[in-house]
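Batch manifest, entry 17 of 40.
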Amino acid sequence: MQSPAKTTLLYTRPVDKTNRLYPFCKQLREIFVSSGLITPEDRPLLLHVTVLNTIYAGGRGGKGKGKRWTFDARDLIPGVELEKIAICKMGATRVVDEQGQLTEEEEYEVVAERTILGGDG
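Output type: structure tokens
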């Protein structure tokens, strides 16, 4: 595990005022296992929100080459309140602009998403 003082990844725990996220994710994991999409694991489910991952810093040409960008993540984000959850395909893909040209930006393709209604509304 990397030191929070010099890391390449920032993640935090999700804040779910409805208390529905964890049971939903456990059920989703069971469906994925029974469908053969993932293999069963004995470890408990640990939910997290990836806020920043520097693997793509500098674009795809820099992925895996040389030293990755690091930053000090101590005390940055205590928790993220959820507005929606999404299931995404693994691996970011290049973004295509309005003219059909590839940009330097990358994003994860959302397969399904749901809005989470918190305690405020």
